[in-house]
Amino acid sequence: MTTLNEILEHDAAIPTWFHCGGRADLLARPRSVGELRDLLLAFASEPIRILGDGANLLVADEGVDGLVISLEKLDRAEFDTPTRHSALVRAEAGAKLPQLITEAVRRGLAGLETLAGIPATIGGAVVMNAGGAFGQVSDVVAEVEALTRAGAEVRIPRAEIHFGYRHSGLNHLIITAATFALRPVPAAGQPALREKLKEVMAYKKGSQPMAAHSAGCCFKNPAAAPGSDTRVSAGRLIDEAGCKGLRIGGAEVSAHHANFIVAHPGCTATDVIRVMEEVERHVRDRLGVRLEREVVVWRRGESP
Ligand code: EPU
Q1: pLDDT tens-digit profile of 50-61?
Q2: Which of 57, 233, 261 should be mutated for ligand 1, with most atoms under 8 A from CB?
Q3: DSSP 8-state secondary structure symbol assigned to residue 290
């Protein structure tokens, strides 16, 4: 048995796609679900935050208290032998979504390619029901495995998960793995599957600042009307409100896609937060729309 001290790192950097922001007082990278459970029990009375790929995360400059847990070492993916109509793939929470998509397409399995270009771990993608114009994670989830904060293992079938737009209702759990139900594509259809993957990537490259440091879309797309399932692009609204190019310190609203805030060299998390607040104010004052944040902000002292 390992002691938890072996995997605890003090004053640790928290890697995020913004490439700025504060550090963790304590960070651990458990190597098994058993170690993860031990951490949950040992830190039962402390704030615990789960780090995915850091692709949708901003950490305030003063850093965070309690324990940050990265599941990057739980990264296995297992493909079951496909039947004619279905193929199951089980991926651990720390596995990277882009790699899983590439591998699924290589094996001629359809269903994940619509999520191409979304940087995420499996756990992060499931908990926020990541997606875009071509599909969302909930389209292919068959089952989720998780631990409760008390360390109990639970398995939740798709029918019991209340997925919505960028929402899973699973935030109270620590996701440890997800099983996806994919569709085997006959050999003759596989070039079209590979083409679809390229098409989704090309759309993103053409419409988004992929090379810049950012956390993708900062705000959720608001409903077109209260209760409506139709959504309007937050990027288009921010653009219409005249915010493209708005810059504070090193943080700037991308001229390429207005829902991206890009972090230039020297940018701080405070710069990004101030730009988000300015964008919220302009869109509210000029268009009467209240934007909701998609990017998660971690702050010291706030309950996770
Ligand atoms: N538009 C503008 N100005 C802008 C940005 C967009 O006029 O600055 C217009 C576009 O020209 C287009 C429309 O708004 O006519 C929609 O734009 P886009 O296709 O880029 O889609 P989106 O709704 O802005 C969503 C997701 C993205 C995802 C894309 C493509 C959200 C919040 N955003 O953006 O997801 O990549 O579809 O699939 O749901 C993310 O969640 O991090 C993210 C980037």
Answers
A1: 999 999 999 999
A2: 233
A3: -
